[in-house]
């Protein structure tokens, strides 16, 4: 019998920069809120949000310097990281054989197979224009994708401009953009045997 494919969520987040941990918490809070399968995370989302807020405040205080502030920031980070890892294990317990479902958790997913192949093409979930001068791109992550790049075109795809490289595909902020201009947006994942995936199918959105 052929074994089922098995995937895992990347849990080495304690080594991540502080801002990346905050970003992951925002991503998972958003992804798991009202999720059809991941209905009861080990750490409730309201608790996770409170821990993120506490850590963010401790980060601000930590920038002022002082050993007490640094220790408080590190302690708050540890609490948040532990909660994120607990919820990651919960998601894996329900979906370790279902890649698409696991990716919908908001976490970064890696294969247990050590062989590296080309990355899949990512897909854009939405491009939000709620804030003037900004576009917020939300995309679905891909297996083994470590970073994501966004490019835009304002001439129907004839020329493209790369707007940045992001750690998370679910919260990619493009700014500044010009109000009244329609932007064609594409996303690619970085990594794998070819170093870059194909670009996603485009989505067009007018900036406000």
Name the features.
single chain; 208 residues; alpha+beta; Immunoglobulin-like; 2 domains; four-stranded antiparallel β-sheet; three-stranded antiparallel β-sheet; 23% strand; globular
General description of the model:
With 208 residues, this protein is α+β, with helices and mostly antiparallel strands. It contains 4 helices and 9 strands. α1 packs parallel to α3 (67-95) and α2 (45-62) runs antiparallel to α3 (67-95). The radius of gyration is 18 Å and the shape is globular. The relative contact order is 0.16.
Q: Tally of extended strands?
A: 9
Measured as a percent range, the helix fraction is: 25-40%
Count up the domains: 2
**Number of helical elements:** 4
Question: Structural class from helices and strands?
Answer: alpha+beta
Rounded average pLDDT: 92
Shape field: globular
Q: Could you spell the SSE succession in H and E letters?
A: EHHHHEEEEEEEE
End-to-end distance? 55 Å
**Radius of gyration, whole Å:** 18 Å
Kindly estimate the percentage of residues that lie in beta strands according to DSSP: 15-25%
- Provide the low-confidence segments as ranges: none
User: Which sheet architecture does the biggest sheet show?
Assistant: 4 strands, antiparallel
Please give the order of strands in the largest beta sheet: 6-5-8-9
Summarize, please.
With 208 residues, the protein is an alpha+beta fold. It is built from 4 helices and 9 strands, in the order E-H-H-H-H-E-E-E-E-E-E-E-E. Helices cover 32% and strands 23% of the residues.
């Amino acid at each position: 019998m052929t074994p089922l494919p098995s995937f895992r969520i990347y849990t080495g987040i304690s080594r991540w920069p502080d801002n990346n941990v905050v970003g992951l918490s925002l991503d998972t809070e958003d992804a798991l809120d009202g999720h059809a399968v991941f209905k009861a995370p080990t750490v409730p989302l309201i608790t996770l949000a409170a821990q993120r807020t506490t850590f963010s405040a401790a980060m601000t205080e930590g920038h002022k310097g002082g050993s007490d502030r640094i220790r408080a920031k590190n302690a708050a980070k540890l609490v948040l990281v532990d909660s994120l890892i607990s919820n990651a294990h919960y998601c894996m317990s329900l979906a370790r054989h279902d890649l698409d479902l696991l990716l919908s958790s908001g976490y970064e997913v890696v294969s247990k197979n050590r062989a590296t192949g080309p990355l899949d093409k990512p897909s854009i979930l939405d491009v939000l224009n709620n804030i003037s001068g900004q576009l917020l791109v939300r995309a679905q992550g891909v297996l083994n994708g470590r970073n994501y790049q966004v490019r835009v075109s304002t001439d129907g795809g004839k020329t493209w401009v790369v707007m940045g490289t992001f750690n998370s595909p679910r919260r990619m902020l493009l700014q500044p953009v010009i109000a009244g201009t329609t932007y064609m947006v594409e996303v690619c994942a970085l990594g794998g045997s070819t170093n870059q995936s194909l670009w996603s199918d485009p989505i067009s959105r007018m900036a406000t």
